[in-house]
Amino acid sequence: MPSHLSADRPAAQPPGHGPVDALISQTRRLKGDVDAVLRGTPADGTDPRERWQRALYDLALHHLDDLDQHLAQLRDDPLSAPGPSGPGAAVPPARRNDSLLSRVGSAEWNLLTDEVSWSGELYRILGRDPAAPPLTLDELPSLVLDEDRPGLTAMVTGCLVDARPIDGEFRVRRPDDGVRTVHMMGEPVLGTDGSTASMWAVLRDVSELRRCRREVSETRDSLHHHRRAAARTEHRLAAELQEAVLPPWRGSLRLPHDGPRALDVAAAQLPPSAHAPLGGDWYDALDLSDGTTLLSAGDLTGRGVGAASRKAMLLGAVRGMAMTGTEPGPLLACLNRLLDATVRPAPGSAVCLRYRPATRSLVWAQAGHPAPLLFRGGTGRALDAPRGVPLGAAPGSSYGQAEETLEAGDVLLLHTGGLVPGHAGATAVHRLLGLAPGFAAARTAQDCVRAVAEEFGEREREDHACVLVARVAS
Q1: Confidence (pLDDT) at 9
Q2: Are 370 and 422 contacting, i.e. CB atoms less than 8 angstroms apart?
Q3: DSSP helix/strand/coil, 89
Q4: What is the pLDDT of residues 330-355, one digit of tens each?
Q5: Phi/psi at 131 (nearest 5 deg)?
Q6: Can you give the pTM of this predicted structure?
Q7: Cα dihedral sign for 129, 207, 141, 158?
Q8: Which residues contact 169 (CB under 8 A, 6 or more apart)?
Q9: Closest CA to 322 of 287, 346, 370, 297
């Protein structure tokens, strides 16, 4: 708002036609572009996002209509001609298509002479008979809804007494079409002695503007509701799919089921600190027909149902190839080709181990995944990793294998990224190796998993993480 006006202040001159005409041309070109986009938006009203988009386009068009007409008024300078000011004033005919802001009326209340001047448009905005005299400031609240009268009175009083600008809204009830919302802006006009001589105001019918904004808000809320519902459904489907894919056992599992050199296996998935879609982390332990045991863990990029479905495909392939006797290195090479052949390849990592209880030997391979950690006698180390690129990174890659001989009481730990919150790579490995004394005192693999969860499970975590522990039976 400008500073308080003076009664003898000269009126501002309208700008030249050239710049305003250029602005009008730009506005009309933009209106045509927006209208073309709006016409291309589906109007069936079934999709919440499309309804929200149409409401925004419609609101933008209304604003551009207002800008077009305001610029035209600025160019033509209609205020230079005296407007109607009393009972005999003629009211201009209504435009065929009223825009949101184009219905603008003006008024001035002279406190020294008690004269009141209303423009013809103000009569139409307030639903008044143009033959009736304009209302004084004391009479104006009679048109306003009861609950809005205190606000109007406070605005007018603040303007007249404290010389504060007016900027607010109130609702009026018109006999022809019900309740309308009016926005009022005004200022006091000060006399030469500094006192308030009169008050002028510009009033606009913003009912349609408020309706459009409500529609935008309602369609946006509806869109958010549908998105939240879709997210909940996707999370539920991903959780159900993961529940069906990951090993069904809870607690400890002995693999193979018979024999003195079996593995005591336990695993867990640690959730993130805040709600997040399920990721592509997985683990598995499988008793094979030849008496060996397959241990594996991995992580695919992505979240939600897509990641869960790719995880199901990958884990099914791992189990199927392991059942046919495929060694870890060739198995990962096949997984790499499988991921490359999918419609939407998603890179990932994996580690695969095959344990032979008869010799307590371990053959393993990795594809860009953290190496297994071996704990023995109160100390720990990461196994030396054979060559292996991440899955999906390089089609046709081959994967090397490494072999390790285990001893009774040894503990193997497989994990996915993010198990140690805030740490990765060598730092995360160092933190995990610090659990060696506790693992040495543990009696079961489940005790080791519990120790990992107690140490790292309660910390701030951005994503899911998996841990699998295998302990060689004595």
Answers
A1: 41
A2: no
A3: coil
A4: 999 999 988 887 756 678 899 999 99
A5: -80, -15
A6: 0.54
A7: negative
A8: 181, 182, 183, 184, 206
A9: 287
